Amino acid sequence: MLGYVIRRCFIGLVMVIVMSLVTFLLFFASPVDPARYACGKSCDENTREMARKSLGYDQPVMVQWGQFMKGLVVGREYPVDPELRATMNEDQITECAAPCLGYSVYNNKTVNESISEAFPVSASLAVAAIIMWLLGGILLGVLAAVTRGSPLDRGIVALALVAYAFPSFFIGTFLIRYVSLKWGLFPFPEYTPIAEGGVGEWALNLFLPGLTLALLFMAGYIRMTRAFVLESMSEDYVRTARAKGLAGRRVLFKHSLRASLTPLVTMAGLDFAAVLGGAVITETVFNYNGLGKLAVTANATFDLPVLIGLVLLLGSIVIIANIIVDILYAFIDPRVRVG
Amino acid sequence: MSSTLSALEGEQLPEPAEPDEGAAQKVAGKSPMRLAAERFRKDKLSMVSMVIVVIYLLMAILAPFMVKFGVIDPYTLNQDLLDANTLPKGDFGGISADHPLGIVPGTGWDLMSRLWYGITFSLAISLLATIVAMTLGVVLGIVAGFSRGWVDMLIGRAIDLTLSFPQTLMLLALSSLAVAFLTDYLHVPEGNIAQGLYVVLVLGLFGWPSIARIIRGQVLSIREREFVDAAQLLGASKLRIYFKELLPNLWAPVLVTFTLTMPAYISAEAALSYLGVSIKPPTPTLGNILRDSLLYAESDFVYFFAPAFLICIIVVSFNLLGDGLRDALDPKSSR
Q1: 3-state class of A87 per DSSP?
Q2: Judgement on whether residues A38 and A91 belong to the same structural domain of the protein
Q3: Which residue of A205, B4, B243, B314 has the fewest C-beta atoms within 10 A of its own C-beta?
Q4: What are the sequence ranges of the domains in chain B?
Q5: B315 neighbourhood in chain A, CB within 8 Å
Q6: Of A173, A230, A324, which to mutate for an interface test with B (greatest number of B Cβ within 10 Å)?
Q7: Which residues of B touch A15 (CB under 8 A)?
Q8: Mutating which of B169, B175, B309 best tests the A interface, going by the most A Cβ atoms within 10 A?
Q9: A64 and A129 in one domain?
Q10: Can you tell me the distance from the alpha carbon of B331 to that of B36, in angstroms, rounded to the nearest whole number?
Q11: Considering only alpha carbons, which residue of chain B is nearest residue A158?
């Protein structure tokens, strides 16, 4: 078992390294000069050269990548160029502690700071969404399975598909403009941290954006739950449970559904990792300053360090989530370890 | 007893195939293809979705001709039909006989013409992106599944790696870089052609892994069949085995995957339009029409809802069609 864990972690580490390399090559293969954007509007040749040196853009891509990887492990200082750094005062040098993801001239702070400001918003949104899509998906999926073939079953599956098929920025805008502003069913959603407004306020404000995000996944989970429950209903242990006279509801929840939960929760874990950084559209529609919004802003201002930092962080989260799932599976099912 | 004996003693035994041709055909003459077609035809929901998909495709093909012959006109600015606040005069976004769905606030474009022509661009982009993703996915899936060993492992790792990238973020973050790359290095004309090409390429490049996984699984299950062994014994080249032996046997999963990838890319085009990386107005796509309509979500609800409904209907129809095809082609699959 330990061998498997080590092997799996090693592969994950290699994947993170390869991903960082690919990201660097992708972002620096273009004809766009990142220093031009980094030094802002009033920019002559001199200041541009300064910006290039202070961010290390004067070095070849591979060297920059090496510096970045080193910074991840031991941290780094900005400006990057040692000669330039030597000419500067203490307070002009920015320390970026390990794991350093870079420094954004545009925001005038390290990428780590920008990300740690945005992270709680995205995490809250992802938590709200996963609760809604798991609860909604499993409940409606079970309901559809129990009433198989009835209008209710077809209605649930159809509604979920329709909700999925509408673009999420349409649903988000509809929720804001109609449900919240016009009909006043919900207060205008503005992110409030738990520390400021308490859990109630926090949750209430997350309802509409969470729903927008959850609807994207709900259809898939309804269909999966329905299929799993229907499949398990023909299993021997369910028949046994029925035969020994257990109540229908007990059979459903304690036997049938329980067996279906493992794959569902696995899926949910992976989707959660993806949603953490993938809520670009929902965050933009609701103007939530999370990681997705950070990416949109960084893209508009061509803030390369932020973009690279975000891609690597979110990619690593997905890779780590995959490792955790694999290890958990290996723990449950010994056959996995060999393969 | 007597009849059996007489039969054994050399009286004409009926030949199994010959005597009654019609009856024999009824029993033995159905190819798997015809069985699938029959199953599909019985499935009303799938038939309805197929009709809707065909209508959309016909509209998409017809639209350029309609524009050329002046039947629909997506570019004329009917400023005289707008009031002082640049909102359409009249109810429901200025619906009239000339403009059945009203006109676009701000510009005065005819909404119906724009939606119709927008279907063409949306479907064209998602179709091209699907073709790119399918080509990559099918080729790499076949190679991985057939080769096994280190080739399989390498492609498998590439699949894992591509799937680990945060997709929406990459599509967004690469846009300005890649568009600059296309125009500066590859001399693609600037503007919407480069933008459209970017969307096609980037959706394809990030979309192939899931397709490759499906195809690889299918190849693993047919690679041990006799016809593959026979081809190998006859000295067929790898390329021949990939594309002449394996590929024709994969048309069912390819067709189903294709039908399920299209709607995903129609949605993706809309999402990218919202983020401003897809084709931009005045060229209409369903995505950019919807994006522009968000400003008028309350003041002009026809404008707001119409493009969203068109996207929803085609995405639902393609999905149902794909499900129907899967059920028809693979009777073992259970939904």
Answers
A1: coil
A2: yes
A3: B4
A4: 42-74+97-329
A5: 164-165
A6: A173
A7: 157, 160-161, 164
A8: B169
A9: no
A10: 8
A11: B316
Tell me, yes or no, whether A99 and A132 share the same domain: no
pLDDT digits (tens, 9 = 90+) for B142-174: 999 888 789 999 999 899 899 888 888 888 888
Q: Looking at the structure, do residues A131 and A9 belong to the same domain, yes or no?
A: no
**Spatial separation of the C-alpha atoms in residues B129 and B207, rounded to whole Å:** 9
- My answer on whether A104 and A126 are in the same domain is no
Separation of CA A169 from chain center: 18
- CA dist A204 and A188 (Å) reads 10
Structure tokens at B68: 């050329």
Q: Nearest C-alpha of chain A: how many angstroms from B153?
A: 12
CA dist A332 and A265 (Å) reads: 14
Of the candidate CATH numbers 1.25.40.280, 1.10.1740.10, 1.10.3720.10, 1.20.1050.10, the domain formed by B42-74+97-329 belongs to 1.10.3720.10
* pLDDT score, position B317: 93
Strand partners, A322: none
ipTM of predicted assembly, 2 dp: 0.86
- For A95, the enclosing helix (H) or strand (E) is strand A94-96
Contact residues, chain A, for B126 at CB < 8 Å: none
pTM recorded for the entire structure: 0.86
Give the separation between CA B313 and CA B335, rounded to whole angstroms: 22
| Mean pLDDT confidence for A306-323 | 90
**At residue A77, what are phi and psi to the nearest 5 degrees?**
-120, 145
Per the structure, how many domains does chain A have?
Answer: 2
A272 in the same domain as A147: yes
A167, A178, A284 ranked by CB distance to B290: nearest: A167
Task: Tell me, rounded to whole angstroms, the distance of Cα A195 from its chain centroid.
Answer: 23
The pLDDT, as a whole number, for residue B187 is 80
CA–CA separation, A171 vs A189, rounded Å?
14
Mean pLDDT within A300-314: 87
Domain-terminating residue out of A112, A132, A164: A112
Instruction: Work out the mean pLDDT of chain B and round it to a whole number.
Output: 83
Helices (H) and strands (E) in chain B, counts: 14, 0
User: For residue A35, what are the domain limits?
Assistant: 2-112
Work out the pLDDT band at B11, boundaries 50, 70, 90.
Answer: very low
Q: Which amino acid is present at A83?
A: E
Q: Are residues A99 and A180 in the same domain?
A: no
Q: In angstroms, rounded to a whole number, what is the distance separating the alpha carbons of residues A277 and A291?
A: 6
